[in-house]
Give the backbone structure.
Amino acid sequence: MGELFQQAEAWLDQIEQTQNYTLPYVDVESKTEPVRLNLMMSFWFYDGDQLEIKEKFVKKIQDYIALTGVEFQREASVKNQRERKFRKDGFPENLLEDIKKEKTSVIYYFSDQAKMSFAPNYGVDVLCSSEMANNERYSTVNFIFPFDFTQNSNNRLQCIEFFKSIVREIKIEQAYCGYRVGQPLDFTQAVTWQAFETAANYRFLGLDIDKNMTQSSHVTNDEPSLEKGVRSTAWLVYLGQPWLEKLDEVQAIQQQD
């Protein structure tokens, strides 16, 4: 892990020097595709099988499109194993129709790339009632942003409001904002994504978020959350400052409505 971590650190140095958040990627056929370092808002919740909740997230996808100005190129449904051109005409009614046809789990993706196999710059992935936890089915929705999207102060404030609106309007069990490594295929001649992601978390946040939605901090494990189910890191990231520089401002951020 030590050598891989050093390689990941070198890639992060390259990112900071060039301000280019894509990296060389080599797939099994030695074709170069981009690996992207993105920001990601992630929401974990129960009741994803309810049509009302699904419809609320469709509205949030519309809000995300308005916030980012993204023009999706591709969409996919894992359940139907189908990738196709984004159906811009008729959206979101066509998505709502698809959702209403499914009586159990709903899984779909949107991407701004020409192929789903490419790591997105902007993207949304939705898994409603597809996983089990505490003997209940839970759902996840992820909104993906370019790494430097929140460097613009206006974008940053709008991202905060977008995040807060979801927490206010939908019963969310857990939510966070963090970093995401976009890896479309399997690595052969590159740093493993786990090492890269861990290195990015150490450098930018001092925080490592496991895939099972548990949190472990390399600073302290006792930081309070801002409100039920919302971790303080989420707000700190979208205020645009590294976690390590913001530890003394947690209380001030908590006082935001």
The chain has one domain: 35-183+195-254. The beta strands are 22-23, 35-45, 74-77, 82-85, 106-111, 123-133, 136-146, 174-182, 207-209, 215-217. The helical segments are 2-18, 51-68, 93-101, 153-169, 193-204, 232-238, 243-246, 250-254. The longest strand covers residues 35-45.
